[in-house]
């Protein structure tokens, strides 16, 4: 085994991940921890200033309920989320986040985030729930508050967490390695809050060659939340609900500002608005098809129908939207020119705030948005329970709202004692986005401190287990060292597989059998069974993963994490015998929605001893809020 130093850290509450959710947890937990003598430690695989999905910045905060002023009610938000998720959402969790999210946004503003203001001082809304920000430095501002709250001496950056450590049926800590130094880190904790984001790169991306790595979802989150919690034995929910964003093609630029702020239309190549021409299809998905706004997956589906019928490509009609907005100034040439310049600047800024690559693509293809439409397309699938997907852990609901079926302990605790989840890591509570993830992190952080206070005993960490895990984590380096002389070309060796090649295999498998881009987002029981069969061979070969450096070691583990994300997804898509989310995926063998049998959560648990999966249906309970 490579001779890595082992660094041991004993704490009370361990926050894994330094993204939006755990930045929220850090601020809140630090406050309650101080009052109760609890130690809080945070570990992130990257540097918190620019880690996670908000790394590049955002141009809008997507959840602001504005309920204190009576603009919206909490019930409005819950109804919106549930309809968007085709009836499958936990009212208690969505409600709990909604009632706390506005205060989180006010904290962001206090910490220095510039939020666009109207002349009367109110926030500029992009849509009903979204507000506009100058968000290039969003993550830096939020991370600064978290760092100030915890103290940098309690933060470990560039440490990739691989596995949970258990003491019987409860969590006891986590183990990982530094991505910069030859060190293995063992964190011993009474409670752990997992918030390692969602997953990208499970399915084959549209981008290839030198564009590989360009995806809608930033490449940092690779299924660690799912792997970590699954391996700890935590029950998962909604793992079939992947997210497919329709975005500006190839640069993956955001469409929200275009649809909501600029009131743009999207059309097929013949100028037809597919939301109009295909709207008859929505009746098949009532009552969700009748919802306003139409659920994200159904909006996708209407566009996909045109692409399948050969009416593509689809276009965002930017030139038309800008002309419409400027038209009311057309009688005053000076005012018209000024407005056009303003709109043009806003259009570019929208991309420069969060998807710079799209602005570069516009520049490279001589695209002036005021003159020419831009192509939009459905991206490959991602797992992002905080956005318009729903995958994540099945967590206990808030005491004052959750029905007995959804409550078994501390708020946001998973089914494993002492293990909490928030943000992308907690399921069935979509549409929390950056602000709601931060708010949910605050909720979970406070709850986890309470757990530490009421369960003060430090769980036992077996040194033999630590040694076994250490050997398992470093094995790819050992595999490489033992076999590197076997061939003259490092890249070709019958005794090992490098993580990049392994990733290609996983992505091809998911793409072709589990409904990726190539399969037109369509799958079936037979295809999923084949996927599981091939996954067995892939998992066998994961034992042969090889790493030449610490960076490659991280890549190995990222792909093992992705593999478990893939596995739980396949099992759950197979279990749900209907097509509830067309536009995210279609079951060719079961093409209709079946509300009678499947208006329920599909939950999955892996037995840590046998690796067997157990699936169960859990009723969706509509609360009178
Ligand atoms: P993240 O913020 O992604 O944080 C995950 C953290 O886990 C990171 O710090 C990462 O480094 C760490 N991590 C991962 N694996 C490991 C590991 N193995 N060990 C240790 N640490 C690990 N929201 C909005 O409000 N408005 C928008 O306009 C908007 N646009 C978006 C656009 C895109 C492309 C994406 C992907 C998301 C967007 N969101 C938006 C949603 C928002 O970014 C997420 O809801 C939010 O970031 C989720 O928070 P999180 O803490 O769960 O995950």
Automatic annotation (TrEMBL):
GO BP term, pick one: anaerobic respiration
The transmembrane segments are none
Q: Would you tell me the Gene Ontology cellular component terms?
A: plasma membrane
- Domain FAD-dependent oxidoreductase 2 FAD-binding, by residue range, is 12-245
Keyword Zinc-finger listed? The answer is no
A GO term for molecular function: steroid dehydrogenase activity, acting on the CH-CH group of donors
Determine if Transcription regulation is one of this entry's keywords. Answer: no
The signal peptide annotation in the UniProt record is none
Superkingdom, according to UniProt? Bacteria
- Which keywords appear in this protein's UniProt record, sorted alphabetically? Flavoprotein, Oxidoreductase
Protein name, as recorded: Adenylylsulfate reductase, alpha subunit
Q: What organism is recorded for this protein?
A: Desulfofarcimen acetoxidans (strain ATCC 49208 / DSM 771 / KCTC 5769 / VKM B-1644 / 5575)
């Amino acid at each position: 085994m490579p001779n890595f130093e082992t660094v041991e850290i004993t704490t009370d509450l361990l926050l894994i991940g330094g993204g939006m959710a755990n930045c929220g947890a850090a601020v809140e937990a630090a406050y309650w921890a101080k009052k109760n003598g609890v130690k809080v430690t945070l570990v992130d695989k990257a540097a918190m200033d620019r880690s996670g999905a908000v790394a590049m910045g955002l141009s809008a905060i997507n959840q602001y309920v504005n309920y204190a002023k009576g603009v919206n009610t909490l019930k409005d938000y819950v109804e919106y989320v549930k309809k968007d998720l085709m009836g499958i959402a936990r009212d208690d969790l969505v409600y709990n986040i909604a009632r706390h999210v506005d205060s989180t946004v006010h904290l962001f503003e206090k910490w220095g985030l510039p939020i666009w203001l109207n002349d009367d001082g109110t926030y500029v809304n992009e849509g009903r729930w979204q507000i506009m920000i100058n968000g290039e430095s969003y993550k830096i501002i939020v991370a600064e508050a978290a760092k100030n709250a915890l103290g940098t001496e309690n933060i470990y950056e560039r440490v990739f967490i691989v596995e949970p450590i258990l003491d019987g049926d409860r969590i006891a800590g986590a183990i990982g390695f530094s991505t910069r130094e030859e060190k293995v880190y063992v964190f011993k904790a009474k409670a752990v809050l997992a918030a390692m984001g969602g997953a990208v790169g499970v399915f084959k991306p549209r981008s290839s060659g030198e564009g590989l790595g360009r995806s809608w979802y930033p490449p940092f989150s690779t299924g660690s939340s799912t792997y970590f919690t699954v391996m700890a034995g935590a029950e998962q929910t909604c793992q079939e609900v992947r997210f497919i964003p329709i975005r500006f093609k190839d640069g993956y630029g955001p469409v929200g500002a275009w649809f909501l702020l600029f009131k743009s239309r999207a059309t097929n190549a013949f100028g037809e608005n597919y939301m109009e021409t295909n709207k008859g299809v929505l009746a098949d998905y009532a009552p969700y098809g009748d919802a306003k706004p139409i659920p994200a997956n159904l909006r996708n589906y209407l566009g996909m129908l045109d692409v399948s019928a050969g009416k593509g490509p689809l276009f965002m009609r930017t030139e038309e939207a800008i002309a419409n907005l400027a038209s009311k100034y057309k009688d005053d040439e000076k005012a018209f020119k000024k407005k056009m310049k303003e709109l043009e600047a806003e259009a570019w800024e929208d991309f420069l705030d969060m998807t710079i690559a799209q602005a570069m693509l516009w520049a490279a293809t001589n695209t002036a948005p005021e003159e020419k439409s831009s192509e939009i397309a459905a991206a490959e699938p991602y797992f992002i329970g905080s956005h318009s997907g729903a995958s994540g852990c099945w967590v206990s609901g808030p005491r004052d709202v959750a029905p007995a079926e959804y409550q078994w302990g501390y708020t946001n605790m998973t089914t494993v004692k002492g293990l909490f989840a928030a943000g992308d890591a907690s399921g069935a509570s979509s549409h929390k986005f950056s602000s709601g993830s931060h708010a949910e992190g605050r909720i979970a952080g406070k709850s986890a401190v309470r757990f530490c206070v009421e369960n003060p005993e430090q769980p036992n960490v077996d040194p033999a287990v630590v040694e076994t895990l250490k050997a398992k984590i470093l094995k790819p380096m050992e595999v490489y060292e033992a076999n590197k002389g076997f061939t003259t070309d490092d890249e070709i060796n019958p005794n090992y597989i490098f993580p990049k090649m392994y990733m290609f295999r996983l992505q091809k498998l998911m793409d072709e059998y589990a409904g990726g881009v190539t399969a037109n987002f369509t799958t079936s029981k037979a295809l999923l069974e084949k996927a599981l069969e091939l996954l067995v061979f892939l998992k066998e070969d994961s034992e042969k993963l090889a790493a030449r450096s610490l960076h490659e070691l991280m890549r190995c583990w990222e792909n093992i994490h992705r593999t478990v994300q893939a596995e739980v997804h396949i099992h759950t898509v197979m279990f749900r015998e209907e097509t509830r989310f067309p536009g995210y995926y279609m079951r060719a063998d079961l093409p209709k929605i079946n509300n009678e049998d499947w208006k329920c959560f599909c939950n999955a648990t892996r037995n840590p001893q046998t690796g067997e999966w157990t699936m169960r249906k859990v009723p969706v309970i509509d609360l009178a809020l």
